[in-house]
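Hello,

Our lab assistant flagged a job as stuck in the queue for most of the afternoon. It eventually completed. Since we weren't sure the result was trustworthy after the delay, we are filing this so someone can double-check. Below is the sequence as submitted and the structure that was eventually returned. Let us know if re-running is recommended.
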Amino acid sequence: MRESSCDRPDIGDTHVSTRPALLAAGVLAATATLLAGCAGAATTSAADAGPPQPGGTLRYGLSGAPTCSDPAQAGTNQTIYVTRQVVDSLTDQNPETGAIEPWLAESWDVSPDAKSFTFHLKDGVTFSDGTALDAAAVKQNFDAIVSTVGPAKAPLAASYLTGYQGTTVVDPVTFRIDFAAPNAQFLQASSTAQLGIQAPATSAQSAESRCLGTNIGSGPFTYADYQQDRSVSLAKRTGYSWGSSAFGHDGEAYLDRIEFTIVPESGVRTGSLSSDQLDAVSDALPQDAPQIEATGGRILTTSNPGVPFGIQPNVTRGALQDPAVRTALVPAINRQELVDTVLGPDFKPATGTLASSTPGYVALADVTYDPDKSKSLLDAAGWVPGADGIREKDGQKLSFKVMYSAVFAGNQAILELTQQQLRAVGVDLQLELVSTSEATARQGTKDYDSTYYNSTRADGDILRTSFAVDGRNLNARPSKSELDTALTEQLSTTDVAARDKILDTAQQQILDNGLWIPTVELSQAVGVGSKVQDLKFEASARLQFFDAWLSGQ
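-- returned structure --
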């Protein structure tokens, strides 16, 4: 049995008014239309499991090792599955409605120009070391992300704080965050794990020290043990009573502990789940379903918003300097074949430069399989087939490498099939598998022909993070263009329709300039055993263990 949900649009960053009850009727109507095709929220609770039972240890098999224990530096799904549990955020994004709801902040105000955000904290919240979570701690947290950790180590967190001028402490529970320019995306960003609030003792540490498992947060779980590349143990935070309004219950988490182990091999994860050595596992592949379901298990799925999987070319390298080559790659890929052959029915082919569950998404007609069009574009650009079928121009082979890591179990198989599809139009794609840490480092120095990844976020501003010259700029574009103008302009309006129109333009510009070659949309597919109940996805498709519990203890 598969249980699925659909990520919902973020509407919280479109209003100066902050409480969900005050959302404009017109926006709610628009949201309802967008939600009409979505299933109910995914959970793993069986109808006959009875009321939640506190206690027990949930054993979870990750498909890859967390890269760092610091939420601010977290980028991969497997890392965020862990780090999300130890920090709370100022706000939360409701996975049912997309609305921004209270968490650490009980209310907030946004200036009309979207340059200042004033938050009012809940009183009495503490970090797990006993220190108060107050306005001064929040200030130190954000100051450290910008000044100590920095964009090289925390590219997502830093991009959410673009133009950060500082945090002003008004009183112990009130503070104002100021930006140099409009930053309409920030309210949604305040719900992410990357901007989760950590204690002053953690904020004072170096970026490297923050990766060792000593992070102190206010979340429902704390780090009990952290062994890089081996395992992570989380323990329930006793006395926790300030959960998000989007959570399913009040008070402490139900589970006593969560034990994460790293199990890269899909077959081993499935076998361990079926034999009751694990309670839940990441990246359950289609071929795993019969074995999981035969022992009473289930597969929980949800679609990831954000930038779908794709190839991002370095426009300064080799044949990829030619815009005609980059645009010709898009129609050469049969995305439906990728889904049908490698992934199965819980996944979708990419149809644009944003995933279809992302607010502001538009389907782009040019993201269509048409190998004849691809060949014609290459012919017109002077790339002619050589004796081996690979095209050439002025003595240069149409060949490039794609750097990727195994952060998702299907990456290699997807790229191997993509390699075959591109070869059919005369392009030689060479696969370069590296570790996640090497991929991150080389992305920082732009040392690749192209890089393959996805980036999850329930806000269209993820395009600015990925493509702006002032962002990660993994295309290595040397100067700004009309695309950068659009990506900056979308930050200046809190009107949904106006912002979506600007994002529409940006999505098309990215494709027209050959800056992204989409493949497939990522979905999370988590296998769970029969005892696991109410394991849920949050709005950005990451697991939320606060409501999870184990039956039959």
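-- support follow-up --
The delay was a queue issue, not a problem with the job. The result is valid. Residues 135-153 form the longest helix (19 residues). Residues 1-41 have pLDDT under 50 and may be disordered.
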